[in-house]
UniProtKB/TrEMBL annotation:
InterPro entries: Phosphatase_YcdX_put, PHP_dom, PHP_phosphatase, Pol/His_phosphatase_N, Pol/histidinol_Pase-like. NCBIfam families: PRK09248.1 (NF006702). Zn(2+) 1 binds at H8, H10, E74, D193. This is Phosphatase.
Amino acid sequence: MKFVVDTHSHTVSSGHAYSTVLENAAAAAQKGLQLLCVTDHASSMPGAPHYWHFANQKVLPRFLHGVGVLRGVEANIMNTDGEIDILPKVEDNLDWILASFHEPVFAPSSREAHTQALLNVIRSGRVDALGHLGNPNFDFDFERVLVAAAEANVLIEINNSSLSGSRVGSQPRCERIAEIGKEVGVMFTTGSDAHFAYDVGKFDSALALFDKVKVDESSIVTTSASRFLAFLHRRGRSPIAEFQSLR
């Protein structure tokens, strides 16, 4: 199994990352990726860019270093109502919305509060995927959330950075999330969560987890460009003409 799409990457614009879009795209090309999602932190995260950073992503070329570039965001889950910090008018300029908990924005609370927030995010219909759910600071009812995600066609991310030590304690939780997700019919995505170009397309830990849990390749949308683009189409997003030849 090989992953050819990285759906979670940060640039220097996030305020605590260290590479440019061009540097990330060059690294993606070296790793053999077909598509790269640019997902800088939305504006509520300390140090994150102004919303115009996201509204103006239309200036990004569709291909850099031969890698297709998707215009995205890692939005912050703001509260138990499931609100995210991207204005609806900005969504029209984006191809991909990933939503995650971050401690500086949503202070860790109770299991039920986290569960309600995730369920409401899913029900909002505004997000394509939920990021780094293995974070032990944000416990939640795995089964309720994963069933809801499967029913709403929202992807569950297996975050390579979490599995590599950035969120200590994530490994067993990610394994359980993958096990339950497999049982209830979740579709998965893979994100490097790179904050430096060398980590773009790094999926070694995610691959090992999928192998251990025996998740079928057909349930992971990042195993081919066409599979990922077909998912976006099912989500109601308009086809990206420049990517139609990708397989």
